[in-house]
Design goal:
binds S-adenosylmethionine; about 35% helix; about 260 residues; alpha/beta; two-stranded antiparallel ribbon; seven-stranded mixed β-sheet
């Protein structure tokens, strides 16, 4: 196909058959499962996915690529092609009550965070997700407390999902080549939330405040919301920085914030 890659759609097409095989082997799609691919592009992952006998929905924004895919996979009955922005897809409409979705994609890097947060709204309808993103973003998503990449994205996504880094993908595996290293990771939505949060907006607010000045202690960074004594009363050391605070501790801060700001 002679398609000129469009930067505004974050198009970097996978070329490396070993990487494609590895992604498929890791995701392990099984006959009869319901998969959704976000941003299929020229179909590098689509063709091997279809070969496994899964039911597959494709969501692609670039209309030229939609026409190409429609032609390329015209004889595939188990395939549904959506010419749509993934950010506007209601994933609950794709899932059925009996089977949760498996989602896969080499995501457009320019809108990776909005896509992930959009998907989190449908976490109850999703069984697992396998995505490729910039390695740096994958490290942020999968970080643990104390890690320099641990931050707001880590906490907000790990509230919904277990996050697991899988393997790196070098720039040479794509055409055109991205400037950065990429990585594959897995998100598995929790069946039960790991912590009880009274108001998710407040969790987001407290976490954003705590990380707005990473180098500062909680006593300073949370000054607007909590006194030092209030932080101590939650059994949290106010001398610590945000990067040392676990999701469980952020949940305590968030719920205390809600009590103070009903
Ligand atoms: N899956 C292909 C591959 O691995 O070769 C293409 C990956 S490319 C990094 C990202 C793909 O997402 C492109 O096909 C692009 O057109 C598509 N895309 C960009 N923004 C999108 C959006 N908002 N919704 C759906 N697809 C989008």
């Amino acid at each position: 196909m002679t398609h000129k890659a469009r930067k505004r759609f974050g198009q970097n097409f996978l070329q490396d058959s070993h990487i494609i095989d590895n992604i498929l082997m890791t995701a392990n799609p099984e006959h009869g499962e319901h998969w959704v691919e976000i941003g299929p592009g020229q179909g590098a992952l689509t063709a091997p996915l279809l070969a496994t006998g899964v039911k597959l929905d494709l969501i692609e924004l670039d209309r030229d690529l939609v026409s190409y895919l429609a032609h390329k996979f015209a004889d595939q009955e188990q395939l549904t092609l959506h010419s749509q922005d993934a950010l506007t897809v209601d994933f609950s409409q794709l899932a059925t009550s009996s089977s949760r979705l498996h989602i896969i994609g080499n995501l457009p890097y320019n809108i990776s965070t909005p896509i992930l947060f959009h998907l989190m709204k449908y976490a109850d309808h999703i069984h697992s997700m396998y995505f490729m993103l910039q390695k740096e973003v994958v490290e942020r998503i999968c970080a643990t407390p104390g890690n320099k990449r641990y931050g707001r994205l880590t906490i907000m996504l790990q509230y919904y999902c277990q996050a697991e880094p899988l393997f790196d993908v070098p720039p040479e595996s794509f055409d055109p080549q991205p400037k950065v290293m990429s990585a594959i990771f897995k998100l598995t939505p929790h069946r039960k939330a790991p912590v009880d949060i009274t108001n998710l907006k407040h969790l987001n607010q407290v976490v954003a405040q705590a990380f707005s000045q990473r180098r500062k202690t909680l006593r300073n960074s949370l000054k607007k919301s909590f006194t030092e004594a209030e932080i101590v009363a939650l059994d949290i050391n106010p001398e610590l920085r945000a990067e040392a605070i676990s999701l469980t501790e952020f949940a305590r801060l968030s719920n205390a914030f809600t009590l103070k700001n009903p």
